[in-house]
Structures are given as structure tokens and as C-alpha cells.
Amino acid sequence: MKIAPSILSADFANLKDDIKKVEEGGADWIHVDAMDGHFVPNLTFGANIVKAIRPHTELPIDCHLMVENPENYVEGFAEAGADYISIQYESTKHVHRALQLIKKADVKAGIVINPATPVSLLEDILQLVDMVLVMTVNPGFGGQSFIPETVNKIKQLAKLKKEKGYEFLIEVDGGVNASTIKECAEAGAEVFVAGSYVFNADDPKERIQTLKNAVKK
Ligand code: DX5
Ligand code: ZN
């Protein structure tokens, strides 16, 4: 299992230190949430933040693009040092083309589905992706409550993965804490994004360990 703290909830004035803190605390990946104010009603950052943090961490950088027409940004994120680029299924008419672009840039490609988007729509691209990210909240903000109905989609994906021998990782994002992480892990999730649970705490390291232990039990 992998824990991917989302820097959306980090202290932007001390980003380098916050990244160091979670890295030392046992984080496996760093999750970067790019938002454009169109696909989601919030603005964050672009590839420049990946470029800025790349020299300060050894961990894989997991980029979640909540932007319209993500194909326009793939090259920039790849050049900045992204290890994973995940695009929202709902964000482009050309999902297949966008995924091909990511692969061509030699970056792992992920597809993300919102709570209202069914797994069945992914049927024709599952063999192409390295990761499927199931949103467990509606994207746009940190600190929202986990939507329990999304767990069924994790189960469906885990079943398909097993039946068809696919190799994609199953990631979950939104409202992950010591209790919701258990349900997600039992359903088959393998990568867990956590923003506010990790960073809105005095000791992010302790929070990461609590998440890891919750899945072990
Ligand atoms: C939400 C983002 C998440 C966010 C999660 O749109 O994709 O990565 O940072 O935050 P929490 O863990 O606080 O729900
Ligand atoms: Zn995210």
C-alpha cells in the first residue's frame, strides 16, 4: 500500500519543509492537485510547482489534473518531473489521445473518475492505464467528507483487475482518514491520497503511521 499526502493542505510558505516532514514520516508518493477554475471551482497551481519541488524529494510525484483539456498540460508536467499524470475522464473529449500523450512522454498514465462517473465507461481504456483513481469526494477542495457510495466502484475495479489480469493500481482520493482508509483497502484500493488528515495535524508523521497501521489490521 502507498500513502500519497496531497500538498493541497500543506503550508505553501513552507512547502519544502512540509514535504521533508512527510517524506521522513513514511510517505510513499507526493500528490499534486492542479486545478484550473473551470473543470473545478477552485484554482491551485500548475507544472511550475512540480518543477519547484522536484529537487527536494526522492519520492514519485503523482499529479492529479483537474483541468479542462488536460492534453495541453501533459508535456509541461512531464518536463517538470512528474512520475504519474492522471487526467479526469470528464475533462476531455479525447481521453484516449490524452492518455497516449502521457505514455509518449514516458510518464505513468492515470484515469480519474468523479463520484457520478461509472466504472463501465472505462472498459475500453483499462488495458492502457497504469492507474485508476476513484474520487471519493467531488474534486475541487480538501477537507470534504468521504462519499461511501464510491466504495462499490473500487470493488468493481478490483474485480475487473483480477478477472482480466490488468496491472493498473487503484488509487482513492478525498476524505481519507484512519477509518475510511480501511473500507477502501478492503475493497481493493492500493494507493491512498490524504490531504487534510495528514497536514492539518501537529504531527504529520504520526498521521501517516496511523493510516498505514489501519490498513494492516
Ligand atoms: C480534491 C483533491 C484531493 C484533496 C484531498 O479535489 O483531489 O487530493 O487534496 O483532500 P482531503 O484528503 O482533505 O479530502
Ligand atoms: Zn487529488
From TrEMBL:
Binding site for substrate: S6, H64, G140, F141, G142, G143, D173, G174, G175, G195, S196
Key words of the record: Carbohydrate metabolism, Cobalt, Isomerase, Manganese, Metal-binding, Zinc
Entry annotated with the keyword Ribonucleoprotein: no
Record CDD domains: RPE
Entry's Gene Ontology cellular component terms: cytoplasm
EC number: 5.1.3.1
Active site: D33, D173
Protein's pathway: Carbohydrate degradation
Gene Ontology BP term (one): pentose-phosphate shunt
Necessary cofactors: Mn(2+); a divalent metal cation; Co(2+); Zn(2+)
Molecular function, one GO term: D-ribulose-phosphate 3-epimerase activity
General function of this protein: Catalyzes the reversible epimerization of D-ribulose 5-phosphate to D-xylulose 5-phosphate.
PANTHER family associated with the record: RIBULOSE-5-PHOSPHATE-3-EPIMERASE (PTHR11749)
Name of the protein in question: Ribulose-phosphate 3-epimerase
Organism for this UniProt entry: Alkalibacterium gilvum
